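Input chain follows. Return structure tokens only.
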Amino acid sequence: MFTGAAGTTNANNAFAGSKSLKLKNDRSGVNQITAITPGETYDLTGYAKTRGTDWSGFGVDIWDENWNQIGSTSIQFTETGWSDYQLQYAAGARAAW
């Protein structure tokens, strides 16, 4: 989770499986750093829902080998019931992370 984020796992409200992640404020989130291959296309998918009161969604920040941000894209969650969201992005020639 991000610094200052507030969230819990929730066993009573999962789309599939045994748990979901519940973020409790508009500045909460999780992140994962993953090495990527320049020129490849990647898909980020997941099921999510929102209360509809604050912006919520997921996104990707793309970094070069020196940790300079060289790209960013995101998708907003708009449905209050579980919905499938998909975000596709292409890693440019300088992409590393």
